[in-house]
Target: GntR family transcriptional regulator
Amino acid sequence: MANIGQFNTLSVIAITENGAYLDAGPLGEILLPNRYLPENCQLDDKLNVFIYLDSADRLIATTETPFAQAGEFASLQVKQVNKIGAFLNWGLPKDLLVPFNQQHKKMEVGKHYLVYIFLDSKTERLVASSKLDKYLDIWPAEYQEGQQVELTIAAQTDLGFKAIINHQHWGLIFASDVFKPLRLGQKLTGFIKQIRDDGRINLSLSRAGKGKVIDFSDQLLSHLQKHNGFSPLHDKSSPEEIKRTFGVSKKTFKATIGNLMKKGKLVIESQGIRLP
Model:
């Protein structure tokens, strides 16, 4: 079944002077305009397309990629505001509407807001909402500690950063676990650090234990390769210098150096560290 506001793989059932018509099942036949048509497109070809409503509220297909799909959160910029609501740039010709009743606070032109994209069941139009809590799962999450997840940074608090986990649940990255700059709407990989008794989730940007060392090893080796195989930083360098350069704690930095040295991939000298 084809879904509006998402990518779908559909079959070509007709080719006309306007483009190709695709079989979208219950949604009917949907036009993929010529400007998006792949070269040498033929009947029965299967195409991966995004389905949305054009400016005339007609279903249309495109091979362009929006900044986010229905069911996802994204930080989008307001292009204009009128009596209907705010219109966001989401990477497609038709801007995305945030009705006034879906705005957590009044939106302003030029500013970015974290929103949830969804298909309005009443109007059958794609819209967005900045009332995030309405679209996050209230049921306990079934994650495992150490599990890798996708995060969307939502807000900074006194404790750290609130993040949305896999477009479904709230989580928190404590300030003490943040070793690189984070921004609203940023998407990045994280890990489940702890699931508390009250159901709340603590997050980490690095896998704990051995995995954490391995994760940073690749980054450190890449840094050395880009700097003629040498770095003036070593186990006596200040935590501030290490954090500023690599975005990790001194503890992680020292553990990684030791691990790589044992494997013969790194040499420690009085002036720094070097590739052998």
The helical segments are 210-226, 239-246, 250-262. The CA atoms of residues 126 and 177 lie 37 Å apart.
